[in-house]
Amino acid sequence: MSAEDLTNLKISDDSVPTPATTSAGQEKDVAIKDDTPSTEAAAVNGENGEGKMGEEEVCNDALEEPRLLASEFEVNVTLADQQANPDSPLYSAKTFEDLGLHPSLLKGLYAMKFSKPSKIQEKALPLLLANPPMNMIAQSQSGTGKTAAFSLTMLSRISYDLQQPQAICLAPSRELARQTQDVVNRMGQFTPMKTFLAVKESWNRDTRVDAQIIIGTPGTVMDMIAKRVLPIKDIKVLVLDEADEMMDLQGLGDQTLRIRKMLPPNTQTLLFSATFPDKVVSFSQKFAPNANQIRLKQEELSVEGIKQFFMDCADNEAKYDVLLEIYNLLTVGQSIIFCRKRDTADEIASRMTADGHSVASLHGSKDTGDRDAIIDGFREGKTKVLITTNVIARGIDISQVTMVINYDIPTTGFGPQARADTETYLHRVGRTGRFGRQGVAINFISDANSYRWVQELQQDLGVEITAVKTQDYEEMEKVCLDVLSSGVWENPEINLHAVTLFRS
Fold this sequence. Notes:
Structural class: alpha/beta
Radius of gyration: 22 Å
CATH class of the largest domain: Alpha Beta
CATH superfamily of the largest domain: P-loop containing nucleotide triphosphate hydrolases
Number of helices: 16
CATH architecture of the largest domain: 3-Layer(aba) Sandwich
Shape: globular
CATH topology of the largest domain: Rossmann fold
Oligomer: single chain
Distance between the termini: 49 Å
Number of strands: 19
């Protein structure tokens, strides 16, 4: 897809949701400094497919119109405290009842062990649920409650007595789409809604979809629309999860744009991500015109609560040797090892298995059934260590992950011109330290380039890097275990500092 294609996206101004206004008709700005996990349930598991009919019958007419909060939508929070502290994004003076949610949705939230909305949910949901519907571009760090916010929006917008697709959520990977479907199913379990997972091998041309909420990947959704299996005339909401990747002109952007052009012009368009690089900001504003925006500055993006290290390995082969040395640390909870290439992930998994360790590898070239079984086994704790590519770098929420290893530091470009990919790094390390818990991220370096990438990461994110000798494994193990045992589960304290580990 070219930039010209996106620029030429035609959505008439009179049919596009408009921003929230004050009583004087002026546009409200939404600014946020937010990162800490919300009170989302730690792991949302469940069967794919239809949501269950609950004890209460719900129809669209019965859904109460949400009440707008009378506050200024200005959020200035840090990530150092718990929900009881007013300065934390976990804190909320409001309840979900204050947000005007329907009782059946409240019942689903409380069944999922939600207690109060996070700061981003408290401020975003009134805008998301207001009438007339408004577009939104929302950026907030991993674990702050974005999935719950757009799931509640879809569940509140649809008409439950209309057996037609009314909301579409697009995700960049099969794994994230399945996870989001599980969240929506659990959240809407006391309503008569249905969901459909639109991924490879999940549909056939002879069965027309009648679920109200469709969650899937762009290629499959586009195919289903083209084959007239997925009717779209009643679509009210389009959500892009991990929107910066979905809008990437070199990646999924073409398919995403085509889907948007097919939908009714007044579709409420919601873009959510932890990162919005400058290169996609202008495109996102064309994709979701006149949108309310919740944005973060670059230096506010760093994931706190995660102790970040890097280890200076002699060469690529030494990376594997170091990985074996720290295996015991990997199994304190659960760990994810990120590699640049699929072949590397498979090779490491094969060698570690041969050395007697229990690991699994996951990447996009595996069969769909294998991918589902592998991620489900990891989510259920059957596998302690998962070796993967960027296929699960974004959005995957497994609360028991205590450590992330960047076997290869993520970069943009190749060779001497390559630069650290700050956005992908943030998404990767954000797989640990969920919901206020602490976590550890370790980055392997093996040459001058990878050392430079670490320097670029600390400059981009404003993190401080200090040194610990790599070969002193006892000291390293003590530091990591201290992190993972310092009130991680009962009373997490969120403090960020990165520690460099050098070869002696």
